[in-house]
Amino acid sequence: MRNYLHCLTLIVTVSLQPVQAEVFEHTLANGLKVVVQEDHRAPVLVQQVWYKAGSMDEITGKTGVAHVLEHMMFKGTKTVPAGEFSRRIAAAGGRENAFTSYDYTAYFQQLHKSQLPLAMKLESDRMHNLNLSAGEFSKEIKVVMEERRMRTDDDPHALLQERMMSVAYQEHPYRHPVIGWMSDLESLTVADARAWYRQWYAPNNATLVVAGDVKAADVFKLAERYYGAIPRQILPQRRHYDEPVQIGIKRLLVKAPAELPQLLMSFHSPVVQHPAQDWQPYALEILAGVLDGSESARLNKHLVREQQVASAVGAGYDSVSRGPGLFMLEATPSDGKTVQDVETALRQEIATLIKDGVSEAELARVKAQVMAGEVYKLDSVFYQAMQIGQMESIGLGSGALPVMLKKLQAVTAEQVREAAAAFLKEDNLTVAVLDPQPLDGKKKTVNEGGQHVR
Amino acid sequence: MSANKTIISVLSALALGFVSATACATPHIKHWISASGAKVLFVEDHNIPMLDVAVSVPAGSSFDTASKSGLASMTHHLLDLGTAQLSEDDISRGLADTGAQLGGSFDQDRASVSLRTLSSEVERSKALAIMAQVVQQPVFSDAVLAREKARVVAALKEAETQPASIADKAFQKAVFGAHPYALQTSGEVATVEQITVQDLKDFYAAHYAASRAVVAIMGDVSQAQAEAMAEQLTAALPVSSAQTELPAVVMRIPESEQRIAHPATQSHILLGAPGISRSDPDYFPLYVGNYILGGGGFVSRLMNEVREKRGLAYSVYSYFMPMKQPGALQIGLQTKKEQADEALNLVRNTLAEFIAKGPTEKELLAAKQNIVGGFPLRIDSNRKILDYLSVIGFYDLPLTYLDDFSGKVEKVTVRQIHEAFARHIHPEHMATVIVGAPDALPSKSGDGHQ
Question: How far apart are CA A378 and CA B118, in angstroms?
Fold first, then answer.
């Protein structure tokens, strides 16, 4: 058993007082890691249980099973009937839900600080006593299909994103949507859900995060009481994928009912593996800020405000994930402009950046936003717990957070330029275009791109 | 600071010494009228070295006319795109340099500008100086207006193809008819294209009046600093005597059902009618009753019938949107086209049953347990408290609103809910919109809602 404390003292030079967030860790004998963040501003708490099992652990033909199981976790255990979990949390004044991603599946409850025993009793129960019945499964799989229709099939931008991912990745399971392909949802059975639950839902594959108006020692005691007796399990070997190196630009077109086209440019990029040694992921984080950190950042200033080639632009990059990363640019052409025009403009931005680099002022601006963000995040206990759970689940550990913050602050202008040159290149690129279709399925007769007069 | 300032302190339960297992200290709200005439609500809190501030004015889309729909939103949108001394880039760069975040919100009633900044002297002063200009000295340039009109028009055209926004537009129209609450908050393609700089200047001068502004301040500043900043943010707002009264909402609407074609796989279904205003005496019975009907997450009747028992939808909900004038009761869901009518009938039956019989004692108890027990979650961050300050100030709610909240919920009875629903909601006077309806006739592209 380990029991130690690490203390994130943020070096916020601009603030009047030091900002501290205390994080306590303790691992139970059965392998369940417990992380506690104390925050005594309000008499509330959040419990989150994170399982290191997400859609990237699924196999072909069974996509969506991680997320379906997440739904089934509310359908009762040996002693708690279906729906009762939600009723008891609600009766205790709580809010609750769950989410599944490529990398993990997590469950949470937000409650008054006096209600932690109830939350732990219920959450620990469904960690090992879930009752997966065929009857409940047959109803819930329909709900999941409706969720897929709503979130993806009928949402042109989500559809573009889904199809882009399935082209950008050649082998890695990131090519499959978290919610699963419809034909897989149609063929999944309760036996698949049971197999998934048996494989991955174990204390030694989970992290318990409790944040809020609690004392770490009390939380560890309660955790031992409620989760301590759940047996450790042998976990399946995780498949490691070496995504084949891309050897040329990829392009795809997605047709969907919409008015405006959209362009997505995704570049394969590294993520943090060794927080203290890496530099490229941090440089890419800063790069995303230089391009899209504010309304006056490069993309909006140049493409929307000055050239007016785009009506909306964005850049995104996440340096922490279990699998390989993407650096993404997106743009919607303005009236009279084409996706070719915005692609050219985005490529020009990249070329300028690689040639001339970024200014010290731009660098300082992004870092100021990062540091202020570290203060602002203290206003959300839920977000801080999220960050801890995510870091634990992808294997870096929440102890890496202060290291990563320091590394971000240390990024130089030259590193940003070098990272851009290294990764924002043709052979890393997938270009996805949304081709808008008229609602009635007929070809458009209006003069698209022309003046609109009514 | 000012001579006419009155400080009204709200003693929290904690200060009074009533601390039980579930008691929750509500924030200590200070309130005064600034020399500018603006109403100020302030909560001092030094736990985090940051400051949140919001300025709200009654300048939402309900102050638009049908022929200039979108003007209010465009005025709000252009506030931070150029001031007397700062270009749009100066504004966004200046804020980013200090790590500050400028935001805003806009709805039928209210236009707000909000700022989150570090509370340290240098950063706070810089950020507030920029916000003060944004709120009080916008210039509304021709070039920026032309560019932003094109962007808004593009977004409107896109919205006209998406089932959720098509449904929303048709629903507001069916519920509010000729009332300005029926207008789309960001306008119509044709009306936005006609907005001029003079329109913006006139709207700003008429509706961004200091005497009608509400300043909410939350965080790491002293009262003296809060007083100075409220004055700094409102002293130069226009003096206006423009009419701000809205026409009355027609409460009994004719029953209607619109079936609109769309190629989506799901039907988007909305049902509703004019509901209640913020000041309605039935607010609490309807709020608690709606929790039972369709507001209570996974445990509501609608969720139970539609999703849990039959798997017909991922999301189904109901809510009252209390506004200055009665806002809508809205019930919504999305379901596979083929089963849209089945789901719609189920929702109608569930509502009719609820109106006819009211909730059970058991349901009411569960609702109270959740709402009262969950009260601390409503005020557990500076952000949430700031939003409450704005709402309390803007809608003239009592300063004891948060202190009284749980008690008012506790007092609600089954009979009150039953009677309040029967008084306000009449199934034979409701509007229904189904976009992507199974049997709708194909319509012209982009005009499916006509």
Answer: 12
Test B266 with A154 for CB contact under 8 angstroms: yes
Residues in CB range of A272: below 8 A, 6 or more apart: A278, A281, A282, A319, A320, A396, A400, A404
Spatial separation of the C-alpha atoms in residues B61 and B339, rounded to whole Å: 36
Is there a catalytic annotation at residue A70? Answer: yes
The structural architecture, per CATH, of the domain B3-234 is: 2-Layer Sandwich (3.30)
List, for residues A199-220, the tens digit of each pLDDT value.
999 999 999 999 999 999 999 9
Residue listed under structure tokens 């882009």? A164
On whether the A23-227 domain is CATH 3.30.830.10, my answer is yes
Position B244 scores a pLDDT of 78
C-alpha distances in Å from residue B356, one per residue of B287, B319, B359, B378, B428: 17, 18, 10, 32, 13
Query: Which residues are A19's β-sheet partners?
Result: A10
Three-class SS of residue B220?
Answer: coil
Q: How many CB pairs under 8 A join A and B?
A: 244
pTM of the model: 0.92
Residues of chain B contacting A143 with CB distance shorter than 8 Å: 307, 311, 313-314
Q: How far apart are CA B314 and CA A146, in angstroms?
A: 6
| pLDDT tens-digit readout, B65-100 | 999 999 999 999 999 999 999 999 999 999 999 999
> Per 3-state DSSP, what percentage of chain A is helix, strand, and coil (rounded to 5)?
45, 20, 35
| Of the partner residues A43, A87, A297, the one whose CB lies closest to the CB of residue B24 | A43
The domain over range B256-445 is classified in CATH as 3.30.420.40: no
Q: Do A44 and B380 touch (CB under 8 A)?
A: yes
Which of A70, A343, A362, A392 does the annotation list as catalytic? A70
* Cα distance between residue B190 and residue A388, in whole Å: 49
For residue A111, which residues of chain B lie inside 8 Å, CB to CB? 374, 377
